[in-house]
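Hi,

I'm pasting everything inline rather than attaching a file, because the server keeps stripping attachments. The sequence lines come first, and each chain or strand is labelled.
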Amino acid sequence: MRKVRVAVVGAGVVGLSTAVCIAEAIPQSDVTVLADRFTPDTTSDVAAGVLFADEFPDIPLEQQRRWFQRTFDHLLAIADSPEASPAGVFLCSGCQVFREVPDDGKPFWSDYVLGFRTMTDKELRRFPQYKFGQAYTTLTCECTAYLPWLQSRLVKAGGQMKHEKVTDLHQLGQRYDVIINCSGLGARDLVGDGEVYPVRGQILKVQAPWLKHFVRVSDGQTYIYPGMAGVTLGGTRQIGDWRLETDAEESEGIMERCCLLEPSLRGAVCQGVKVGLRPGRRNLRLEREMLHLQGHRVPVVHNYGHGGWGITLSWGTALDALQLVQQCLNEHPPPAKL
Amino acid sequence: MRVAIIGAGVIGLSTAQALLERHHSMGTSLTVEVYADCFTPLTTSDGAAGLWQPYLHDNGKTLETKWNKETFDYLLGFLSSPDSIRMGIFLQSGYNLCSERCPDPSFKDIVLGFRELTKRELELFPGYSFGWFNTALVIEGKHYLPWLTNWLKERGVRFFHRKINSFKELAESGVNVIINCTGVRAGELQPDPELMPGRGQIIKVNAPWLKHFILTHNFARGVYESPYIIPGSHLVTVGGVFQLGNWSEQSNSTDHKKIWDEACILEPSLKHATVVDHWTGLRPARKTVRLERETMQFGPMTCEVIHNYGHGGYGLTIHRGCALEVARLFGEILDQGARKAHSNL
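And the predicted assembly:
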């Protein structure tokens, strides 16, 4: 039987994770990642990479929990190994603060991070404008290191990468037996999914190596995420905003809000400003369909729309995508070599 | 009133500060001088990682626990000030690991968010079956000491780079009160069989992905004789050894290997950390801190001495509480002097 030719469209954290899962689990696969942008130019590269998620409204909570848990466990194993620094994965502790006590209790992933608990009054004194907080230890996964690490892992498993802008899945119909669509925001054009929209995020990277904890305000608009080479200060969540250019006024706003949370930041040197467009969608799309491309029936697995939780759900959704691919291959194995 | 402080580590400098804060109303009638043969960045305080944490159990030394708490609360108060970075103070959370269950530590109600480690967390540290997680502070001597020095200089304190060989020499020069903050070498001024060096050796590495302190405790081996990893503002300190009675200030390759090998088992990611430096320091180890007054007679002259040394591996942890206590004892000296002057009328 000849190799199964798999195309993964998109080389962000979701595309590469999916590609690696497939290449490693299906030895007879020949996986190619196709993208117009590779690290360090993907959306994933802009993200601070702290594992955290909000709920998708219509996806069963059990499934979302599983995505979170599997990604967390996968990354925890890396953090607890010599691979931690080459892969850019490490434990980080910190808190999320709320102006009012939330009525929805604990987030769905509270059992999967480490040591999740409510903040004590003494801890809250650092945040006089906030009445409530949750403290825990989670993981940070920096894609500027993690994506190259995944790429190495893909190559070791026999996969490859190709610089190619895929504007239409029809381009791939003849060359591939299975297509995985991890095009993120690009799915809007690639498969005509009007439900995909950008959620613009601007961040600052500052030098503040004394900061060891993350702090996040519950509305997701203000956060401080210490990384390996700098601290990410955020942020913005502008729905429907396609601007890739940085905005000086927004930078000032971010700096001001973060300094209120963490006064020591006033001494921090700014290393840069970046913008990323989160691939927003009401619900993440993870499903398969059969398409007719250039006279071929080609199974397509969609894995996109992760919003601001791409890194957080990357491995878990990749494993589900793998399962869908395996189902496709079982139902329609590629023709044997004659 | 001339006060001479011997020693310019964290104890000497913070004591000078507390004296001035408490007795500034004396104005120019109080002169404070600091004498030392060693200043920042070469003191023991400069080399220490600076994690605020007392030994696990205080064995009844409730006064020391009180001083530790005063220091923690004092330092915590600076966090909301933009000065905190220049002072070298920042928060840090981390792990205390034990090979067996043991009683709660003396600092459990002092630090923030103290809790036992969960089973999943302990799985990250094979060989350790019990432990705690909490948020504490780091106070880096190499920033804190210059900040203190500045504070003192701004208030007219004079510094003398000179080794003091006897209390007598200072008394004879007209000093009324001597504060003895000479740390591990206090025995040179007055023999103290309870004071011994607790030699420590550390390795400084570049590992910016490490955000937590990890301290291990091996009750058979003793305090600090077990690996620890403490991230600093730039580099990560890896230790530890605690060799009682060893005066060598040279780094030793056997110790280096033991420290490194054990730390790499504890934290596998260290494999890719670059070693930047190493350092050896002598902790001024003593069963208890010596913090007390002593009146010395040199012929017709009386000189009041306040001893403040023997802080072991927790000088930075306890410094403020001790400094306040010295300031209180100094107040007693002033009162006695005033009463005596009064009674002489």
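Residues 32 and 156 of chain B are 8 Å apart (CA to CA).

If the labels don't parse on your end, tell me and I'll reformat.
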